[in-house]
């Protein structure tokens, strides 16, 4: 592991550094989303150590994989023996965390949580600031640990500052912490603007007829597979392209049709290549506990790509993009009518309004605002002991 910043000794290793240690349930190389966007910007100011959930393999002894993704970003993955007990797994990970921090001398430590479950092996840490970026209501997700709610309560008590992944989630949590702030999904405009430029169709999409309606993202219990099947059956001349990894659900449960194309996960860098050849984007989310508080990152990404979009009635989408007339809200009864209407309009029908709405949105702005809250929390913790001393 390389630690950047600060003074260096004869071994060329920094003596002191500012470190952001993130505990996440999402793998860095999974779907590129909120954690990667925010923490990449954070890494421009401090060393990022991204501690993932463990992988379990048929091995005798635990180990740890350390991947220096860049001079400022290190990905850490515990590798544990298959069948190990939860108690032993926590003890091993606790030891790994201590070893990592010991090997990376620092003068300031920010711990950042995406999963409250990481408290089981990190609640002993002494830090300068503790951040909880509550991007989803994880307790409502399929296969969520039974103790998730209890662990989140403990994390709220430890955290100096809390961020939420959307306005609805903020409203549900705001009474639980005195320093909690909503930060809905933002957008890398330049990246998705590439979809507005001409380019070759990806090989695995090239033979799919037009018009195409597409989705990209994690394919799990949050999607309304019945609506997807219904739309494909009602519009046989429209081809539905679905990009993303299938998780937590049986791939065999996904509907099949000649105009329904499950193309699997694609690198974030390649998404504009696919989107530029779609006629519209859609977000066929189920309306259930798992989607009650989501703020889909793909909403502004679709729009920045220049695509018209339809979505089911996700609260944060309805109250923002729907209210502005930038996304058409649909349900099972009118999905065909609204999709056909959308496909009949020019693709650039709302580009002027879209660009105006997205003009002040960026992940860099999001990080800068978060960093200001973190610095304020750090300053307050530094001031209070001085006041007590005085």
What order do the helices and strands follow?
A: EHEEEEHEHEHEHEHEHEEHEHEHEHHH
Average pLDDT taken over every residue: 93
Number of strands: 15
Number of helices: 13
What fraction of residues sit in β-strands? 15-25%
What structural category do the secondary elements indicate?
A: alpha/beta
- Report the end-to-end length measured between terminal Cα atoms: 41 Å
Q: How helical, in percent, are the residues?
A: 25-40%
Largest sheet: 9 strands, mixed
Give the radius of gyration.
Answer: 22 Å
Written description of the protein model:
- By secondary structure, the chain is α/β, with parallel strands linked by helices.
- The chain contains 13 helices and 15 strands.
- The strands form 2 sheets. Strands 1, 2, 3, 4, 5, 6, 7, 8 and 9 form a 9-stranded mixed sheet that branches.
- Helix 10 (315-322) links the parallel strand 14 and strand 15.
- It is globular and about 60 Å long.
- Residues 2-15 and 386-390 have low confidence and may be disordered.
